Amino acid sequence: MTIRQISEKLSKLIKNLSGCSGTEISDSKLIDLIETVGNSNSPLAINSLLKYCFDEKWVVQETAFKAITMLYDQIKSKDLVWFDENLRQNSYVYYQMGNEFYGSTKQIASRLVNMNIDSRYEQAFLSILSSNSNGYVREAALRIMVEKGYDCLNALVLRSSDWVSQIRVYANTKLWELWGDFSDQNIVNSIPVVERLMQKTRVDNSELLKSIKLRLRSEKGSKLLFKQIENGDYIAARYAFTYLCEDDGHTQQLISLGISHRDVVIRTNTLKLAQKFLRKEELLEALNKMLKDTSTMIRRNVLYGYIESFPEQSENVLKEILFDKAKSLREFARFYLREKGIESFAALYRDKLTTANSKELIGVVFGLGETGIEEDYSNIANRVVNSNPSVRAASLHAVSLLKPAGWKKLILEKFESGIPAEMRAARDVLQVNFESFDAEELKEAYLNSKSEYVLNKMHQIFNSRELNHLYSKIYGCSDRLTLIREMCRSDLGAVVKQIKQSNAFMLFHRAKLQKMSNMLENLILEEQKQDYIEARSLIDEYLKFVRK
Q1: By the 8 A CB rule, do 178 and 143 touch?
Q2: 151/231 Cα distance (integer angstroms)
Q3: CA R_g for the chain
């Protein structure tokens, strides 16, 4: 199921849930709906569930509390600012709670305090209400969290930037009163929230940020930050890495951890750190490790490191990069090797073709295609016939560059009946070399194809801008505005002529072609009668090449 389908399904569920009332749906169906929304993995669905936390039936209440807690627990600290803002934009709570909630802060707080909520769900419930659109509700929820000793650090940080001064003052006061009671772990977890709020202009949080950094300078704090780098989400890990970089005493450990980190930003910053602080022999070791990085950008930066710091070793490294699967790195290597007087790249690729392993062979095939001659393709074809899919895909890119006899027929054959990797490569070749292919061959391939993949990709490649333009002109011929109507009618003939002269193979959806035909059927074009006839003839011609 696609993201769009999931979103549509969830929207339908929420719509059904919002329209429920006790007389329209049984308790069991209502509970099923609440549980389904609770399992949706979409925290913004919380708004549709909140009113059921105040339902008269205990079983409905309990189900709603459990559902919103499940959704709230999925929110990472990096997303709390986003969640806080979005929750308020669609907050039903205040006016869904009933008349008892209208009135003073004291009355609202009293209602919340007296609610019988399972302790497993109360903290999440109050945290959600502390982001409510109504200031009375936000303040009441926040005060109860503080009084009951719940983990309220993130809630206090969020409300310390509240636009209501009374809430803002209360949150800031309690934040500093309780600062010593918050654990180092909670403070580490709150870093993304504070950092995101630093981007807001309502309140200056710089003092809070300084306090966090000061608090975490201890040995225990540093260990927690290292743990965050290893196990936290990528935003939290980046902040932790940045904090630790401010202390030179952690450099070696940071580099050791960052070289193989899952996040490309941290690996990039690790390379910069290594180049700044490591001694030559240590830096060379780090560069050797990072030369195998999965990121093309990082491998390029590593190459710059060799060229700048180890010019004597850089030639051999660049020769190895000639066989990299990334085109930009192969071009990089050839550029810098030319500066060293090396020009015979095709010969290097030919020699490597016979000895390369399956991983190296991808780059070798690409490289020989980029630097070789037409006769080189026979060697490529012999070498890759039983290779892995990526190598076979690379060979199609090579054939489009070397252009041996029959290369266009080979591309079309692979586009129609190759393995998936070959079909994708052939599609890319068709897009780049569109003008090289005969329109009739493409039409035949399209009409004879039995593959839905091929049909879809054909439409993506050959969907015509010209036909889209014709559609807009025909549509405009019936516009209610005289000026637009006359302009479109006078342009119709020129657009039709342009399309006929292109002789390109272009696809269009049958329904849209049929609609154009119907629109022309209803037009009266006495002055442009010949244009009308030409347009009808053109559309009828294209309808022949639209699969039913």
Answers
A1: no
A2: 21
A3: 33
353-358: long-range contacts, CB 8 A cutoff, minimum separation 24: 353/379, 353/380, 353/383, 354/383, 356/323, 358/387, 358/388, 358/391
Q: With 0-12 CB in 10 A as exposed, 13-18 as middle and 19+ as buried, what is 414? A: buried
Each residue's pLDDT, cut to its tens digit, for the chain (548 residues) gives 444 444 555 566 666 665 555 446 677 888 888 888 888 888 888 888 887 887 778 888 899 899 999 999 999 888 998 888 888 766 554 444 444 444 455 566 667 767 778 889 999 999 998 988 888 888 889 999 999 999 999 999 999 988 899 999 999 999 999 999 999 999 999 999 988 888 776 677 788 888 998 889 889 999 999 999 998 789 999 999 999 998 888 999 999 999 999 999 999 999 999 999 999 999 999 999 999 999 999 999 999 999 999 999 999 999 999 999 999 999 999 999 999 898 889 999 999 998 988 888 999 999 999 999 999 999 998 888 777 899 999 999 999 999 999 999 899 888 888 888 998 898 889 888 877 887 777 777 777 777 777 777 777 777 667 777 888 888 888 777 778 877 887 888 888 887 777 666 667 667 777 788 888 777 765 566 777 777 877 777 777 666 54
Identify which of 142, 193, 188, 194 has the alpha carbon closest to the alpha carbon of residue 164: 142
Q: How far apart are CA 270 and CA 260, in angstroms?
A: 9
> What six digits make up the tokens of 378?
């026979």
DSSP state letter for 246: T
CA 41/CA 487 separation, integer angstroms: 52
Contact 289, 259 (CB under 8 A): yes
Q: How far apart are CA 200 and CA 187, in angstroms?
A: 20
Q: Is 479 helix (H, G, I), strand (E, B) or coil?
A: coil
Q: Which residues contact 481 (CB under 8 A, 6 or more apart)?
A: none
How many whole angstroms separate alpha carbon 403 and alpha carbon 433? 11
Report the SS3 class of residue 507: strand
507 φ/ψ angles, rounded to the nearest 5 degrees: -110, 150
Residue 507: strand pairing partners = 463
CB 345 within 8 A of CB 373: no
Put simply, whether the predicted model's pTM sits higher than 0.85 gets the answer no
Answer yes or no: are the C-beta atoms of 68 and 128 closer than 8 Å.
yes
Q: What is the H or E stretch that residue 376 is in?
A: helix 376-384
Give yes or no for a contact between 464 and 508, defined as CB atoms under 8 angstroms apart. Answer: yes
- At which residue do the structure tokens 């690379």 appear? 394
Contact 10, 40 (CB under 8 A): yes
The CA distance from 360 to 323, in Å, is 6
Angle at 420 between CA 414 and CA 422, to 5 degrees: 40
- CA–chain centroid gap for 146, Å, is 38
Tokens encoding 369: 């295609």
C-alpha span between 75 and 85 (Å, rounded): 13
Helical (H) or strand (E) element with 335: helix 327-339
Alpha carbons 355 and 213: distance in angstroms, whole number: 54
